[in-house]
Amino acid sequence: MTLHKNINAVAASALGAGAGVSMKMLLSPDESPNFAMRNFIIEAGGHMPLHTNTIEHEQFVLSGRAEVQLGDKTIEAAAGDVLLIPAGVPHSYKTLGDEAYSFLCLVPKGEDHIEIVKS
Containing H/E element for 31? Predict the structure, then answer.
């Protein structure tokens, strides 16, 4: 099966964790045999809390800048950056500047358990 759609035609759904976070499901696990592709958008001044996943994440930053905690280190990620977050690694995002932070996130097909890490 082939598929064609435009990112601007996909509706964003607000997420309950963090502040100012929404997600567009670009390729659902039902549409793709091996991966799901999502577009996360964190509005300026927004954040996603420290959490873990049971599946790895491959990310490509489309726009904006964010302070991203990856395990015990913190980096600044910006448009054009690629991140690999292995399963089980705690990670969080906090936008920098006045632009939304937007990234593609690919994950392997399979059940994902998300756990918020208490500080």
Answer: none
Q: Confirm whether 7 is domain-assigned.
A: no
CATH assignment at residue 94: 2.60.120.10
d(CA 43, CA 98): 9
pTM score over 0.90: yes
Contact 109, 29 (CB under 8 A): yes
Task: Give the C-alpha distances (Å, rounded to integers) separating 50 from 15, 96, 117.
Answer: 14, 17, 5
Label residue 72 by pLDDT band (50, 70, 90). Answer: very high
Encoded tokens for 24:
């567009």
Degrees (nearest 5) of the Cα angle 20, 36, 7?
60
Quickly state the pLDDT bin for 19 (edges 50, 70, 90). very high
Q: Is residue 5 part of a domain?
A: no
Q: Is residue 19 part of a domain?
A: yes
State phi, psi for 24 to the nearest 5 degrees. Answer: -110, 125
